[in-house]
Amino acid sequence: NDDANDDSSEDDAYYFQGLPNPTSPKASTKQPQQPLRPSGNTGVKGVLADYREAQQDEQLRREEGRLESLRAFDRATRPAVRAECIPDDINNKGGNGDDCGSDGDSNGDLDDGDDDFLKQFRSQRLAQLQSTAASNLLPTFGSLSSVPPEEYAQLVDDIDSRVYLIVHLFESTIQECRMLHSALEKVATCMNHAKFVEVEALEANPNMDTICLPAVLVYRAGELTHNLVRFTDELPRGFGVDEVREVLEGLGVVNLIGN
Question: What pLDDT does residue 55 have?
């Protein structure tokens, strides 16, 4: 039995040679069973939008608080400045203070100017925050692409390090590969912050034993994090989008920034 296991390990290493960052398929064939998660539209985009809006509002409130402090300081120092402009005879006898203008009218004009400035500042600051937030967003994809082996290898090295790269190694003559292809096409649209591609297995490695297909390889930051050979073995007969998505979510491939 030990000799048979050694021969099997050597065969697996031989079949997967030439793939980027290959690992032993036996070591990763059995993945821990993940608890079932609810599938469908979980409203992730809405949660992220609310979160970013709350952050922007908080920053704007801090900026407005600082501006209000400056306005209060300006008002507190205004009477002292105007007193220097009022002639002694007016201070003693009374008068309308024409030399410096009406204090009430001046205050009103300045308050209106402050309000206009505050509105303009808020608008500019909001645009700036939105621009900054947009630059921090993950890239979006939303489709399953068929790529040659050369492009597959380049994607592993060049794709955004925050993005999961999901690679389906398939052979069109295998029914399970065709079923997984159909499911991944739909999963890619709802997990659009992950990059989904498929590669013809024998084109990538002519020596690969097709008994290990369909296989799904998961990369992040240039590293192979999961090597799932015979991916459909653990799925129910007649599996679909929900089951495939559940497996990927159990591996941590989700649509949230920073995960």
Answer: 75
